[in-house]
Amino acid sequence: MNAVTFSQQKQLPAYNRLLLKHCVHLLSHNERLLAFKGFRQQLNSDDNKFVIVTRTPKEILPLDKSTNEIRMSILPSIDNYVQELEMSGFKNI
User: Fold this and answer.
1) Could you tell me the residue range of the domain that residue 37 belongs to?
2) How much is the pTM?
């Protein structure tokens, strides 16, 4: 089950912690918004945690400078993720 499908499951019990590890960059902007909103609804209270673990492109693959620059320009920034989380109802990011 992928992150977007999981986030939309209504029959699952509520969670107090969610972890998205090394895959947030694989989701499109629209998929992230849909998933983040669903994850927000999956948490059982406002003081629970949603943790996103990611790396900078330089840490993922040791590529040459020009390739790293291209990858950096394509991948969303941390500020972009923060904005999407805020749009999805998360606070204390």
Assistant:
1) 21-87
2) 0.81
